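User: Assemble these into one structure.

Assistant: Restating your components, then the assembled model:
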Amino acid sequence: MTDKRNVKADRLRAFIASAFRACGMPEHHAARMGELMAEADIGGQDGHGVFRLPMYIRRIQAGGMSVDPKIKVISERTATALLDGGNGPGHLVMSRAAELAGEKARTTGVAWVGARHSNHAGPAFLYARMPLAENMIGLYVAVGSANHMPPWGGTDLLLSTNPISVAIPSNSQPDIVLDMATTVAAYGKVKTAADRGETMPEGWMIDKQGQSLTDPSRSGEGLLLPIGGPKGYGLSLIFGLLAGTLNGAAFGKDVVDFNADPKAITNTGHFVIALDIAAFADVDEFKRQIDGIWDQMKSSVLLPGFEDIRLPGERLAATSAEHLANGIPIPSALRDRLDALAENLGIERL
Amino acid sequence: MTDKRNVKADRLRAFIASAFRACGMPEHHAARMGELMAEADIGGQDGHGVFRLPMYIRRIQAGGMSVDPKIKVISERTATALLDGGNGPGHLVMSRAAELAGEKARTTGVAWVGARHSNHAGPAFLYARMPLAENMIGLYVAVGSANHMPPWGGTDLLLSTNPISVAIPSNSQPDIVLDMATTVAAYGKVKTAADRGETMPEGWMIDKQGQSLTDPSRSGEGLLLPIGGPKGYGLSLIFGLLAGTLNGAAFGKDVVDFNADPKAITNTGHFVIALDIAAFADVDEFKRQIDGIWDQMKSSVLLPGFEDIRLPGERLAATSAEHLANGIPIPSALRDRLDALAENLGIERL
């Protein structure tokens, strides 16, 4: 159903681009930011799309992020590269990284491109999905932009949700797209619960005495819990070392809370891998096999209480189709913030 | 403390090698099997070491696994390869894969080598750790050798524990080595609980009605639970597609329970990635940074009830040192099985 408060994807892209342009970002970069940030909202990851625009703009205005970053390759092999993101938005840096990984993997079969001096890049699936257009598999990992998790058994906030996304193309089914944090709940879900005055389920957070914390208004004193206890802690640590430390980017106590101080340089690290399917298999046959696996999972007998079995990427595809047809819902509180931003920047309202 | 029932590492290696030699395995392969299987026991992964020897031998004697596999590269790019393991033991196949990945990554920066027509390879850490000797980071993923997990919301056993291991070298601290299943508990832990007559903790398994299952003697009707619910399911699925389907190896309903039928060809799939640290960073400086991250985690204030913070790989290093010094404990039930095996093969007892 079309809601008159919904916004068409094209309008959302244009609005985001105009905001960055008003801050002095070159046209091609601004257009790319509009595309990628709107893609997050189109896919239903609304905590990572236009919701973040006021904060990005605040960071730019405070001098904490560059609108015209010089993205440079600072070391390179035939199948690897390390980019310096010039303190630009992560979207621009990791688009370039995914593009370069795809170019390299076309010849070498696989490529791993890391980046330092980058920033928050929105949802992980954006970059994992980029290699699909070239019949490649994509993997993306980032150091999260604020530490909300301690090492297992501790209380110091040294780790982030450090997400991973992996995208694998199918034939006639939606592409398989996993996009997950290494914590039980992403911090955005905690903030959403706080906004709505809801109680959090047990298992999302504990306090520093190890007691369950379900009141999201107390999240500042809380610790996010990793999936699988020490396993999720291990994954977060490993992803942080690979996406952060290896790239010369921030990890551990060096991670800057990008919401807390808009002037502090975040030195965000990420990496993307492109894997050329044709180096291993016949591409069409492989995609048909992915369809077959899809069908196997879907055909399983259900547990009591479940209505269907979902594949990773299924909801992303359904939400994207729905939002492209009917527009993207913008909650009124967010719309108010975007209206204020438009006034601040002297651009047309959304 | 040295227990007179403990076995020295050298003796364990020799015993394992002699068992394979007695089955007609060429000397260099048999010696390699002895090294790698003993390495599992040395590291404390006793469910994946000599414990598996009777089953491997049974498989060889039944004609289900080759003692002299022709391990062939069947497709190759500069940074990738796909191996056909010739239905040999996974240890031989994935050693070759890790070696090839290291050779390639020395030039290209990263290499991804997959394998099909392989078999169970023991603990994942063995192969993730191989690139460390060349100052590389290693990653290893396998399709587990029996399905004990359904897709999230279902009851059909279509997925396995599909483990991942990642190894990152440090300077003066133990190397970081994560080795984890995508399920809350590996199936071996269920079998160990059954052997000991113990009750399992809630959260390891449920039955097909979705009720908690804590009696390990009922594990045949149970479903292993993934870490983080749908997240662990997603990881298991993705790892299976990458290690299995992409390599032309078994995944989903095609996975053969390697314990159930020693004649059935398992067509096990795995992959290993070698990532050359020098393509991104100064190797010595990077290793010192890993030490620094180690210290950060260790220095965290503790939660009530915890005595220390562990890093992935810490227990592996401590157990390895202890077992190398004092020998490896062999439970009497296992010793009886190994004695029977020795008699069967006409080799000297352990």
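The longest helix of chain A spans residues 90-108.
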